[in-house]
Amino acid sequence: MSSRTPLIAGNWKMYKTVPEALETAEQLKEAVIDISGREIVISPPYVCLFPVAVALKGSNIVVAGQNVFWEDEGAYTGEVSPGMLKSAGCAYTIIGHSERRQYFGETNETVNKKIKMSIAAGLTCIVCIGELLEERETGRTFAVLETQLSEGLDGISAPQMAAVVIAYEPVWAIGTGKTATTAQAEEAHRFIRSRIEHAYGSEVSGTTRILYGGSVKPDNIDQLMAEEDVDGVLVGGASLKVESFSRIVHFVVLG
Ligand code: PGA
User: Fold this and answer.
1) Ligand 1 neighbourhood includes 10 CB (under 6 angstroms)
2) 69 and 76 in contact (C-beta within 8 Å)?
3) Neighbours of 146 (CB within 10 A)
């Protein structure tokens, strides 16, 4: 195993009301009470962040925004700033999720602005990248990842990379039940690490965590985590239920 602390993150997307989120968080807290040496992050909808963060205070679970805006404050109806996430109890925010790219016009440029402002506010960013099925089928996976990385991380310094986690999420594997094979995941992760090394050197590339996301389930987590360059996972559907997410958090280290 690498020295990188495994990070297991649950993205609840647009699921759960405030009472439902609180109930799940309370149950999850008990279910993972035995875990140490692994970071656990959950990302409820905006309106649930503060009450969930309060409920999880002192536990081994931290909360993350699912998105963020790139200004501190202003007349931007409907948006939430990095400082506001921080004040609600967030330690992390997800940035550039493929659903944001697909439905809400997120681009590498907006991803870049969001990362910079979030780091300045003291948040750790889970930056999502990944290719579409058509891009994979036409042999463009690495080119797409390379562009998303170079544009998304443009101007981010080596010290700032300590506050960046990359999530490789092949878009064709999200919510489809179609997981990338462990070999496909490892190949992409290794490529991403090599690009980080190219840009920042081996110290940063050796410490940057790269998560896999896309139909992560209790029955594939152990194999995924056994890959050298898979440092954790970003889980959608299977993070909504305490039983399945707890099993994922309790992944078994295969010999
Ligand atoms: P999924 O979602 O686990 O439901 O495929 C992953 C994600 O969107 O982060």
Assistant:
1) no
2) yes
3) 17
- Ligand 1 pocket, residue 179 CB under 6 Å: no
Which of the four pLDDT bands, split at 50, 70 and 90, describes residue 90?
A: very high
198 an active-site residue?
Answer: no
- Angular region, 129: left φ>0, alpha ψ -120 to 50, beta rest: beta
Q: Kindly report the CATH number that applies to the domain delimited by 7-249.
A: 3.20.20.70
Say which residues have a Cβ less than 8 Å from residue 64's Cβ, sequence separation at least 6: 9, 41, 42, 43, 90, 91, 92, 93, 94, 126
Active-site choice (97, 106, 131, 189): 97
Catalytic annotation, pick one of 106, 135, 169, 186:
169
> What is the per-residue pLDDT across 51-73, written as a single tens digit (0 to 9) for each?
999 999 999 999 999 999 999 99
In the chain, % of residues over pLDDT 90: 96
At 119, the pLDDT band (50, 70, 90 cuts) reads: very high
Domain regions of the chain by residue span? 7-249
Q: Which atom from ligand 1 is nearest to the alpha carbon of 216? A: 3
97 annotated active-site: yes
Instruction: Work out which ligand 1 atom sits closest to the CA atom of 99.
Output: 8
User: Do 214 and 173 meet the contact criterion of CB atoms below 8 Å apart?
Assistant: yes
Q: Residue 234 and residue 213: Cα distance in Å, rounded?
A: 5
